[in-house]
Amino acid sequence: MYVSDFTTPAHKDDVVMSDEVVAHLEHADDLALMSMSAEGLQQKLDALADWASRNQMEINTSKTVVMIFYPPRTSRPTQPPSFQLYAQQLLIVDRYKYVGVLLCSSGSNTWDEMISTCSKSARRAANMCFFVESRTGQLPPWEGCMLYSAQLDSRLTHAVEVTGVGTNKQLELLESVQLHYLRRLLGLQTRSQKCVLFSETGVLPLRARRLELVLGYLIYLLRLPDSHYAKRALRQTMENADSRRSGWWHDLRQAEALRVRVRAISGESITEEIRGSPKLEILRDRVEYLARGPKLPAALTFRPYLKIMNKAARQAITRMLLSDHRLAVETGRWDGVDRADRQCRLCDSAVEDPLHVLFECSQSVDLLNLRRSFWDEIEVACENATAPVRGVPDLREATNARASRLRLQLTPASKCIFILLADARTTSILAVFTHRVLTLFDSLPPRRYPGGRLQRRNAV
Ligand SMILES: [Zn+2]
């Protein structure tokens, strides 16, 4: 197609972008005409028909449609204007896909329809990812995160350069797919806390991800030559922002710094949420043990314990760390019971929380046997433990595996757990042990509180 010589006569209702008239757009053989009025658009249709006949071409009227965008909060005429091409009336539509972007003129927001389509498509992709489990076996978290970036991220951020970050309603629709996928991947309940889904996988919350992409696109626009249409469009939106949104241009100039900061800001807010959450007691004290010594953990990163291949063990340790279990410390919260009253169902002498049941409670022979074989396995693993575990100051002086085991047993449980998580072998042993202990506690009758929900106080 050679359409470069196609022009339309000037009209008073032409669309002006920044300081240039933009009356038509061409993308390969896709052509879009535009005008601010019905009369102006009809004039352009006539001009196009003329140009086509001069060039021995004919326009396919069945594929030609009209879309009318009314200004917000204006009443629409009962009889919409009509448009003709070759004396045939053109179809007026309220949704149309142009260059991969679905436009919609009927709702209050042009992008509602497209966001809804993207969310449906992402949900289908998510279901497909888990459907393969029935054919290939479980989908482990690491591979699940790779599938997320390949299959879901592209759908959840489709055309974000055009639509922008999105309204709250649009974002909630897309976010629900992201949350559903990550919860299912980690084996958590549908109402588990959101912050841990990101802190444990390194996936960025969708709002931050979309903002990151939009800011990246803005930087690209700012670097374009002034003659570029995309640059003119940017200038026009800046002019539109004028005095009422005077801070916008200023923010734009800082976009690059902002973009780099998006991850840091998300990380900070997630860390803050974890620290402030009464549920996430274990994660609050998380320390990462590296070969060169302990350090504060990264806010957002894929956690090595999610690489455990044994699904039941992996999901048990995930639920234990992220407080998504049925120990009394959690079920008592649902009943509104004070934390101190959520006593252990076996010994009745301490709060039934993960650290108590894993490392302290000694009221059941079954539990003691499980714990004894757990420590025996840890002792064997200490023989070949990797540098991070050997780098723990308290263990450095242990001369043999037996001494390491004893020192670990004497370490406070809240710290010991993260030392064990520093090594793949001890992580696996801890995960299997957690699975066994949680199974044992799941088999106990749930604790009943006198007064039940009526006893509700300031439970945290
Ligand atoms: Zn107990």
Describe the structure.
This is Reverse transcriptase domain-containing protein. The chain has a two-stranded antiparallel ribbon. A two-stranded antiparallel sheet has the order 3-4. A two-stranded parallel ribbon has the order 5-8. With about 450 residues, it is mainly alpha-helical. The protein has helices at about 40-55, 110-130, 135, 140-155, 160-165, 170-185, 195-200, 205-220, 230-240, 245-255, 255-275, 280-285, 310-320, 330-335, 355-360, 365-385, 385-390, 395, 400-410, 415-420, 425-440; strands spanning about 15, 20, 25, 30-35, 65, 85, 90, 90, 95-100, 100-105, 290, 295. The protein is elongated, with a radius of gyration of 31 Å. It has 3 domains: about 15-95, no CATH class; about 110-275, no CATH class; about 290-455, no CATH class. Bound molecules: zinc ion. Zinc ion binds near residues 347, 350 and 361.
Q: Can you summarize this structure?
A:
The chain is mainly α and 460 residues long.
State the main characteristics.
460 residues, mainly alpha, 3 domains, two-stranded antiparallel ribbon, two-stranded antiparallel sheet, binds zinc ion, RT_dom
